[in-house]
Design a protein that fits this description.
globular; alpha/beta; 20 helices; four-stranded antiparallel sheet; 37% helix; binds flavin mononucleotide; 16 strands; TIM Barrel; Flavocytochrome B2, Chain A, domain 1
Length: 509
């Protein structure tokens, strides 16, 4: 080893130096051109030791980046384990083409549809599914348990139909609005979604730039891949950003985060209240297990459990004891409006009004938490009449998120009384597949849909939208399609209708 521990005369480490330390007895990894001895840290790694051992003796940057905030190593690994710079020209490049799955993915990327072939938000999802890395796709697309709530979020909108008005002058349509005291050009915002760099190497700042172009508000996640300051720095000319907060067990840390965000100019604080424990997203777990441990036999059962992956690992700080009695404290440490994200019934909305928060997001975390939680749009239809009955509809701003893919979905929510809606996965998919131009186009498509549909429903401005423009009678009907119902889909024989004799069936278009 030509490593010199004397700081004054440091010689760079070589790839060969690192490669020797490739076992659990001596485990070195490279991150961003620097070497780290993580041997003693292995048992403590919240994501388990297996994932680190996969990169023992190698460059782990690509795996490390999306799921660790930039200052992780400085914060959690003792300085004595920071071994110094590595001469990266001596490090063997990991051939991406070697992995047959990666090779196929690269082939699919080459054959991707051009951006202009994406006509709606679902198209981005279809492309992203084919071109994203398997583990990233699994993390973004998964929902909890049987993913019934995740599907319900989208299909709930199909149970609401319009009652449009005719002969309204809609030559000029204006769908700008105000959320939490700020003007915005459209009644939707980019909601907080963790780990942006899994989908794109630049991460959340892509969403910031696109949001700026369209004058849309962005909610910054606590568990972003970029640092909070990087995301704030990427904003321009008074662009509005909100902070999503996972509350830390250590309230001093939480207070620091809140006050830093306020000083940096964040305009609202969204406290996530639907995740005292992270949901069990089996698709995500399965993909991690395939990737990291498929040929590792588990003897203790422990190994399998730890493959639950990044999300759970990095969220271990979240305080499950958070309760209503903490709300006054939050109100006392900041002047930012406080919004509870993840409220799911009218009783809790009323309580939120009583404790004096400024808003709620009716949300089930994109179907990633409690399966069989109802959709935000259904809860909205339950909440607004009760608020109106009490004359409380202006005491609090009501937002919803989950499953919103079309401007008609947004319009339905606004008709029922939402101030605005959050959109999560579609922007992640647009970013993962096409980068900034993708998110830009996704936003533009929504804008175009918005203009056309406002005209067709007979509303020239947001204030014209009201409950009499929608028929919600079907909303309470829940019919769950169970995608992982192995009995229904794989075991019971399907019922088949009569077949044509020997004529070829007409192919589907
Ligand atoms: C990949 C992913 C990561 C998410 N991360 C967070 C998070 O860190 N904090 C949070 O409050 N909500 C998080 N959410 C939930 C979203 O804020 C939002 O409630 C949900 O995505 C809305 O549903 P949609 O994806 O169908 O639009 C996440 C959602 C996804 C899909």
């Amino acid at each position: 080893m030509n490593h010199d521990s004397n700081n004054t005369q440091r010689v760079k480490l070589t790839g060969a130096d690192i490669a020797k330390h490739n076992s659990k007895d001596s485990c070195w990894v490279i991150v961003h051109g620097r070497a780290y001895d993580v041997t003693e840290f292995l048992p403590e790694h919240p994501g388990g030791s297996k994932i680190i051992l996969k990169y023992a003796g190698k460059d782990a940057t690509e795996e490390f980046d999306p799921i660790h905030p930039p200052d992780t190593l400085d914060k959690y690994l003792d300085k004595s384990k920071h071994l110094g710079e590595v001469d990266m020209s001596t490090v063997e490049k990991q051939e991406k083409g070697e992995d047959p799955e990666e090779k196929e993915r690269q082939e699919r990327i080459k054959n991707m549809p051009i951006l202009e072939q994406c006509y709606n938000l679902m198209d981005f999802e279809a492309v992203a599914r084919r071109v994203m890395k398997k583990t990233a796709w699994a993390y973004y697309s998964s929902g909890a348990d049987d993913e019934i709530t995740m599907r319900e979020n989208h299909s709930a909108f199909h149970k609401i139909w319009f009652r449009p008005r005719i002969l309204v002058d809609v030559e000029h349509v204006d769908f700008s609005t105000t959320m939490l005291g700020t003007k915005t050009s459209m009644p939707f915002y980019v909601t907080a979604t963790a780990l942006g760099k899994l989908g794109h190497p630049e991460g959340e700042v892509i969403l910031t730039k696109a949001a700026h172009k369209h004058n849309i508000i962005q909610m910054i996640p606590t568990l972003a891949s970029c640092s909070f300051d990087e995301i704030m720095d990427a904003a321009q000319d008074g662009q509005v950003q909100w902070l999503q907060l996972y509350v830390n067990k250590d309230r001093a840390v939480t207070k620091r985060i809140i006050q830093h965000a306020e000083r940096r100019g964040c305009k609202a604080l969204f406290i996530t209240v639907d995740a005292p424990q992270l949901g069990r997203r089996e698709k995500d777990m399965r993909s991690k297990f395939d990737d990291v441990g498929s040929n590792v036999q588990s003897t203790s059962g422990d190994a399998v459990d730890r493959s639950q992956g990044a999300a759970r690992a990095i969220s271990s700080f979240i305080d499950p004891s958070l309760s209503w009695k903490d709300i006054p404290w939050f109100l006392s440490v900041t002047k930012m409006p406080i919004i509870l994200k993840g409220v799911q019934c009218v009783e809790d909305v009323l309580r939120a009004v009583e404790v004096g928060v400024h808003g709620v997001v009716l949300s089930n975390h994109g179907g990633r938490q409690l399966d069989f939680a109802r959709s935000g749009i259904e809860v909205l239809a339950e909440v607004m009449p009760v608020l109106r009955e009490r004359g409380w509809q202006d005491k609090i701003e009501i937002f919803i998120d989950g499953g919103i893919r079309r401007a008609t979905d947004i319009i339905k929510a606004l008709c029922l009384g939402a101030k605005g809606v959050g959109i999560g996965r579609p922007f992640l998919y647009a970013m993962s597949a096409y980068g900034l131009p993708g998110v830009d186009r996704a936003m533009q498509l929504l804008k175009d849909e918005m203009e056309m549909n406002m005209r067709l429903i007979g509303a020239a401005k947001i204030e014209d939208l009201n409950p009499s423009m929608v028929d919600t009678r079907g909303l309470g009907m829940h019919t769950a399609v169970v995608p992982s119902d192995t009995l229904g889909l794989n075991v019971y024989d399907p019922l088949v209708g009569p077949r044509m004799k020997s004529v070829k069936e007409r192919p589907k278009l």
